[in-house]
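User: Structure please.
Assistant: Input sequence and predicted structure:
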Amino acid sequence: MSGAVGVFIPHLGCPHRCTFCNQNTIAGSALPTPPEKIAQIPPPKDAENTELAFFGGSFTAIDRTLMTSYLKVGQAYVKRHGLRGLRLSTRPDAVDNEICGILLSHGVTTVELGAQSMDDAVLARCERGHTAAQVERAARCVKGAGMELVLQMMTGLPGDTDAGALSTARRLAQLAPDGVRIYPTLVLRGSALAKDETYRPQTLEEAVALCKTLLEFFDGAGIPVVKLGLHAEEGYGAGELVAGPYHPAFRELVQGEIYLGRAKAALAGLAGQVVLTVGRGRASQLAGQGGRNRKILAALPGIAGINIAEDPNIAGFEVVATRKT
């Protein structure tokens, strides 16, 4: 996926306040970037692989005149500095053929849709204000217009289950997105969810286990997971997080669990000193945080020691085990 120069438009256009959302917490006191300020943004170094991105609200649901103003100024910025195009995030029920035509004519290259779930009962309980069918229609509209599609889903939503999340993943994959984002539900201060005494958030262990399954599913389907988990630096501080499976290296935890399982399978039948080989840049993921995986694997019956190597010809989460000579 492309890099991005961000233009934040907090909560503009959102017709609903989802139970898990407190946009004021996420956005802080930030004000929308006025269209005329975009021209003052310093150009990125890798312009041809970067998009100007409108994030933080439901972009296609804002006032049409304001939306067009942002698009025109953004398009001029893209042409001036040689960027790849424009990127935006929006609601599935704020996308139709007319909107896609407007976006395409202004140089939009990527649209992100906040699907969150493909279970209508879960969507209703979260007060999303749209249905799974609207996600499907919007996704097909974006793809049909020739723009790249990124779909967002959440885990641990009120009323959802692990089986429901996997069902959502399968339905999203059928829409052939160019990427997905997976966000475990975090309970933020000031949100309706923070006041819901019936809601039990996922534990960190539960979220990691579920996201391991989801990441392996999308990886097997050839769909990149461009984001897994939220980071505190994205706009909320530790004091705003009431509950939920937050970890500053959430994705690394999930990847480590995948590699641990793959490595155990690869080691079956081997003994003595062994070498585990993974793809380029993947050694630390196999080793696990603090070397946890390496210690677990070295303690397996018959294993005298673990060495980790990298091979650029190994793809995905593949692990190759050989005896050390």
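DSSP finds ten helices and twelve strands in the chain.
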